[in-house]
Amino acid sequence: MIEKAMQYAKNPVEEKIGFSFQIPVSMKQEFERVCKLNGVTMTNMLLGLIKATNEEYPDYSKYDPSRLLDLQFIQRGEVEYMEKTIHTLSDNNIALMGEQYDTFYNAYEKEKLKLKRIEDKLDEQNILYRKYGMSEKEYSEKFEKNMKEKEKKQ
């Protein structure tokens, strides 16, 4: 995530608004040092960290249920591929060593977490449309209509 945040920090694109918070002096000094080493401002680095965090934890509530099903299918394929890779390596006695293994396993865990979030949101929506006595299609259409109305208000 830090690498992604650094990329965003080097290429800021949006208009900025005020945002204020307090941190310990030592943290500010160390952060300032790291930003200077990487040729980015502290503001842009913080923006990059926020953006990378938001991308890592998308708001699935904005997705139509049918789109979530597509995402679930794709994400499940990603997780299954990574699981097969881990099993193939272990079956062939090929070991990823140290940092390589940690990096791959952490990526695998992130993909599993994304899948769980998608499935949790699908379960939540499934419960909602059953609660209101709607079919999945009816709920999906109502969801689309509500999202369009929200966009018009903004």
The gist of it:
With 154 residues, the protein is an all-alpha fold. 76% of the residues lie in helices and 0% in strands.
Describe the protein:
By secondary structure, the chain is mostly helical. It contains six helices and no strands. The longest helix has 34 residues. The chain starts with a helix and ends with a helix. The relative contact order is 0.09. The model has no long low-confidence stretch (mean pLDDT 77).
Please tell me what the overall shape is.
flat
Low-confidence stretches: none
- The quaternary structure here is single chain
> Measured on Cα atoms, how large is the radius of gyration?
21 Å
Number of strands: 0
From the structure above, extract its key features.
flat; single chain; mainly alpha; 154 residues; 6 helices
Describe the secondary-structure layout.
Layout: H1 2-10, H2 25-38, H3 42-56, H4 65-91, H5 98-131, H6 136-153
Helix pairs in contact: 1-3, 4-5
